[in-house]
User: What shape does this take?
Amino acid sequence: MTRTRDALRFVAIGCLALLAHAARADETCLSPFLPKITGQEDYVYVYTLGVDGLGDGNDKLVTLGANPRRPGYGKVVSQVSMPGRHEAHHGDFTDDRRFLWLGGLDTSEIFVFDVATSPGKPKLVKRISNFVAKSGVVGPHTFYALPGRMLITGLSNAKDGGGKTGMVEYSNAGEFIRTIWMPAGAEYGYDARVNPDLNRMLTSSFTGKKNYMRPLGELMGDAEAMKRFGNTMVVWDFHARKPLQTLDVPGAPLEIRFALGPRHYYAFTSSALTARLWGIFRKDDGSFEAVDLAPIGDPAKPPLPVDISLSSDDKTLFVDSFVDGTVHVFDVSDPRKPVVIHEQKIGAQLNMVSQSWDGSRVYFSSSLLSKWDKGGADDEQFVKAFSWDGKVLEPLFAVDFKAEKLGRPHIMRFGQEGFWAGTSSPNVGE
Assistant: This one.
């Protein structure tokens, strides 16, 4: 009997090792409460801002083929238009990965897509139009899957359109649960990331609707308006949703990426206005400290760093900067001493970055905000895919969203054709 138990234990460990090895396709920035796709991603879902006079002018969810062994590789596989333009921005999957929630920063409308029934052809199944009325929050930004819930960070509020904001929780069925306002002295919000092992959540800060819906050149010329950006990050007791610490991180710290390895108790962010890379490190007493780590690009020519992506082994950090259209790749094996190992211009402007779990494929998109994107010939709108060998990014494919009359591509998420094969898909209201 003991020998049988030992054999079964050996088989179980082997199966777990195989499963861990197989989980090599999914993005590294997703909620830890999500199931992972394994093997090659088949699709990249791209949330796209509508442009007046370009196609139907509406915001869209565009699906691109991402598997070189399947038809439609590097091409538009499908597209679904939302009614109107809402300043399409961010979104993410529910914790069962069956539904993709997408939010508009201007109208604060939320659109829910079924991506499980037919992964290559997502279907719009729900529209939430009372987000502001229910929550008091404006500008749904980060969508972050929690068990049975969706956590949504806001950028603004319904009273004055300023930067005081909060986080909003919904059930997976689309029912409002509660608003959690940001604490005094750290009222601005932007991103949220959770480390379940520590029971800690980090939030970052940006600016309110009165700022982010203004043309960038006009905004930067308004000295008073430029004072209304966040300079803080908050450490939360995740389960209690209780703020524990406020950290000083000047210059609008944006995206947050927690390290993924065991006992790697730190995170990275970049400050948009000061172009600095920051580390948030847990100290021996359990509290956290914010450490200014390195410049991003040329400080004399502020590049406006935006999205970041940390590799699954916690060794490589990709940092996109919007103004110079460049990705800056850091070796962060020693997280307190990052070293630039590669820089490459991707386009005239650059925003989002998504990399596969094995680090061999990296995807970039171009649009930041409709009134912040560049004009004329510099208004390039693309999704570009590259291979990465640890030293050089080599082009795989590119889709010109202006030529395809699709609009301005923003956030990207991965999908896979057979992920839910053989399972039933619940209705969004269940």
